[in-house]
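Let us work through a complete example step by step.
Step 1: write down the sequence.
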Amino acid sequence: MTDGAFPALTLYRLGKLVTASLDLDSTLKAIVDAAHQLIESESTAILLLEDGAELVIRAGCGAIGGAIGERVPAGTGVVGRAILEGRPVCVDDMLTERGRARPDLDVRSGIRSFLAAPLVWRGVSLGVITAAARKPGLYGPAECELAGELAEQAAAGVAHAHAYAEQLERRQELETLNLALVQAERRLMQTEKLTAIGHLAHGIAHELNTPLGVIISNLAVLTSYGASLGQLALVSRQAAVDLRAHKTLDAVAEALEAGLGVNDLDYLLEDLPALTNESSASAKRIAEIVRSVSIFAQTGSEGMGPIHLHDALDAAVTLASTEIKQRAHVVRSFAEVPAVMGNASDLTQVFVHLLLNAAQALAERGGVVTVTTAAENGQVAVRIADNGHGIPPENLARVFEPFFTTRPVGEGTGLGLAVCHGIINRHGGTIDIESVPGVGTTVTVRLTAAASETMRR
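Step 2: predict the structure and record it as tokens.
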């Protein structure tokens, strides 16, 4: 063995390597190389326990280097004794040693002197470090002590690597769990969205049928007007022909007057603009409803961008109007507010749910739902207030709990406000509820402004 100063420096460097390295194989290789040099062996290896029954050669120098990956029974031979006794075991001549674990390895390497030191970390055996030489009687107490110190370094490296691997595994498990939770949240949001669409479907159909009926009725009248105007065009063209044929002006005038009288041109010209304006307004109403449904029903809610909350609020009011107008009228009080970073579909879903909640809190007639917006300290605040029956104090603290509902069985899942809270939280905002029984409820949503400049609506 070399001079004592050199082993101390080498052990110090190994300690720093073990502390800093996260790669087990490179750490074991460095320790084997150091042991090979310090103990002056011809064959040096580190074997690690797997499943508590077998040792696997993980690193090696010299003749044993070609056996990396091979297995050795953990409870037999010199290595078994070292592990069992928890101390370095030294053999002067392997040819006289009984119960060797792998005689074939001994024959292949021609070893005679053999040394095995267990890797123990906090009372747990992790493996063994071995040194061997073809000349007998080479190892004594000094080599056993050095091997023991190297084994301690190796045990620390193995424990460090195992701890890091377990940390990575836990991190991956957490990432997988988080991904599953995100996916579950998205499915839940979509389910609630579809539930809301199902709840609103009848009202949406009614809202579409009304303007559509107006358009269909007006088109029938416009068709007859078109036929009348066509007849007038024919009469006018014939009048031009008659004039060129030098018919008397009285005859031409009589023909024109007859045509104009039959088609009641005065009434037609008066009614035509009203019909077209009414039809155009109805078509715009249909387009507004379809646009609102499209915004609300969008999937892929991970997309964020600058949006104006008034657009989402208008879409929500349009979708919920049938439910609300049976009980109340909506008062909009929109201020100049900046855009926010968000997803229009998700925020529309929030506002639809809050509007439906407000409608359901109202009596049959005479209610008021007020929707206001305001810019407040770098945020945009949206308040949806009703003058309904309010929420009892004992329930107010639980309204965002999943599955909490005060509605009869079959009329609510108790997930709506929980989903709303999740959406607003994902947008980096807040949602708060204030309520006074018998007076009404105000829900305030606050979202961070995307830019300083305001956008007029």
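Step 3: interpret the result. Confidence is low (pLDDT under 50) at residues 1-6, 453-457.
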